[in-house]
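re the bet — no i am not wrong, look at it urself. input seq straight from the record:
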Amino acid sequence: MSIMQVTHRWHQRNTFAFQTQTADMLAQQRQGFNN
């Protein structure tokens, strides 16, 4: 596998994790507003 492919896969995984964390944070904030 080429360096570019490795970097692309790693970047995709990190981006997905970041999006998941952000969604969790937004959901928690929304719950906080509701309480």
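see?? The radius of gyration is 15 Å. told u. also Residues 8 and 35 are 41 Å apart (CA to CA). so pay up
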